[in-house]
UniProtKB/TrEMBL annotation:
The lineage of its organism: Bacteria, Pseudomonadati, Pseudomonadota, Alphaproteobacteria, Acetobacterales. Its EC number is 4.3.1.7. The basic unit is a heterodimer which dimerizes to form tetramers. The heterotetramers trimerize; 6 large subunits form a core ring with 6 small subunits projecting outwards. It comes from Falsiroseomonas stagni DSM 19981. It holds the Pfam family EutB. This is Ethanolamine ammonia-lyase large subunit.
């Protein structure tokens, strides 16, 4: 089935849903690289108008990646909840946008989530301005629990990211101390390992768990190794709180990551069996990023933002504690500059929240992108207004292991102070008990030194 729209006296034709979604996407370098971007601003406007008039129900009858070829497509369509979809089944994409901005409240959006497909949500975000993406996401309520409660209204959590280029325990411990002093770590204390092997994973997990246990910190730890490495660590009895994995929106992309739905299901079940959570059992942590499917040559001619949202269908299958769009990490080949990164971050957050996910965003860029910390300040502030679940906390905003620029512990404090946000309640109470609520060195208890953390 084709689609057409007349703009400026020219009739623009889009042969299928895949082309319509791609041409309606606000410009970004990755779609141009893939050869799927609109050829002109007029064509983009025509596609957006045609998309706005498209019934939401159409997305249930035309797949952008063939059902028979892709397990992600099968997951999306087989898990679709018709009863949850019924309240908006009569709407077009444009009508859905209007309903979300005007009538919908948090309870209605939460109930709707199982009835929405990623392609519906991707289509919606393509016809939204930035203020729409902020306003819609701010209505969404997604709460998850493991050792604390994330996503409550009025909270902004921070992942403490103590990465070290050689996984040096002293380097990791020093960064953990720095982050805790500055109120970070309620989302997770999560290390990206420099070396992905089970011995190193067990060593770093042991360090993080010893710190958490010694000071009775109501949070969770994670070493962001490959899911199969984490399963080996669980077999050895390592203290695994959360299972991490990068995921994507096509079967081919997930295969390139070395995972499948069955592997993720096995890991999820193994983590649940450990019963390490004290207030909940959300045990998975997923990361995603626009452009990853193109870099793996697994995009099927679909635009990168639609594929990003399809990854969220994989995530919600496993009730994760955390999902993170590493929005600017993949590089300027996919998101060229600050403007593209800002929009993509707001799109990803809004789409994830509509699909019922505890969405965080790594507000970040690589050093060869046309972006700087001013752009990150703008995105961080907009995400804070939009109710983002969590952001990253990196010493000095400079990750020396992954070699990219993110947000610092101080940036998290700025966002909380400027927007009246607090940490997760259990973590906030712990900060008070430890004399860290003021986040000053003078308030640090004497035993809690770098030496004491090792």
């Amino acid at each position: 089935m084709g689609f057409a729209q007349i703009v400026g006296g020219t009739r623009h034709v889009f042969p299928d849903l895949r082309a319509l979604l791609a041409c309606a996407t606000p410009f970004r370098s990755g779609d141009a690289l893939a050869g799927v971007a609109a050829e002109s601003a007029a064509q983009r406007v025509a596609a957006q108008r045609a998309l706005a008039d498209l019934p939401l129900s159409h997305f249930l009858h035309e797949a952008v990646v063939p059902y028979e070829d892709d397990e992600v497509t099968r997951l999306i369509l087989d898990r679709h909840d018709a009863a949850a979809f019924a309240p908006v089944a009569h709407l077009t994409v444009g009508g859905f946008r209007d309903w979300l901005l005007a009538e919908a409240d948090g309870a209605a959006i939460s109930a709707l989530a199982p009835g929405l497909t990623p392609e519906m949500v991707a289509g919606l975000t393509k016809i939204c301005r930035l203020q729409d993406l902020v306003a819609i996401a701010a209505k969404c309520r997604v709460t998850t629990r493991f050792r604390n409660t994330l996503g409550l209204p009025g909270t902004l959590s921070i992942r403490l990211q103590p990465n070290d280029p050689v996984d040096d325990p002293k380097g990791i411990a020093a960064q953990v101390l720095d982050g805790l002093l500055l109120g970070a770590g309620d989302a997770v204390i999560g290390v990206n390992p420099a070396t992905d092997n089970v011995d190193n994973l067990c060593r770093v997990l042991g360090l993080l768990d010893a710190v958490r246990d010694r000071y009775a910190i109501p949070t969770q730890s994670c070493v962001l190794a490959h899911v199969t490495t984490t399963m080996l660590a669980m077999e050895r009895g390592a203290p695994v709180d959360l299972v991490f994995q990068s995921i994507g929106g096509t079967q081919g992309l997930n295969t390139s990551f070395g995972v499948s739905l069955s592997v993720l299901r096995e890991a999820h079940e193994a983590a649940l069996a450990l019963k390490r959570g004290t207030v909940g059992d959300n045990v998975m942590y997923f990361e995603t990023g626009q452009g990853s499917a193109l870099s793996a040559n697994a995009h099927h001619g679909v635009d990168q933002q639609t594929l990003e949202v399809r990854a969220y269908a994989v995530a919600r299958e496993f009730r994760p504690l955390l999902v993170n769009s590493v929005v600017g990490f993949i590089g300027p080949e996919y998101l060229y500059d600050g403007k593209q990164i800002i929009r993509a971050g707001l799109e990803d957050h809004c789409a994830g929240k509509l699909l019922g996910l505890p969405m965080g965003v790594d507000v970040c860029y690589t050093n060869h992108a046309e972006a700087d910390q001013d752009d990150m300040d703008a995105l961080l502030t907009l995400l804070g207004v939009a109710g983002v679940t969590y952001v990253m906390g990196v010493p000095g905003a400079d990750d020396t292991m992954l070699a990219y620029q993110s947000t610092s512990f101080h940036d998290g404090l700025y966002a909380r102070a400027a927007l009246g946000k607090k940490p997760a309640p259990e973590f906030a109470a712990w900060l008070e008990r430890m004399g860290l609520a003021e986040r000053t060195p003078e308030a640090l208890p004497a035993p809690m030194t770098v030496a004491g953390l090792l």
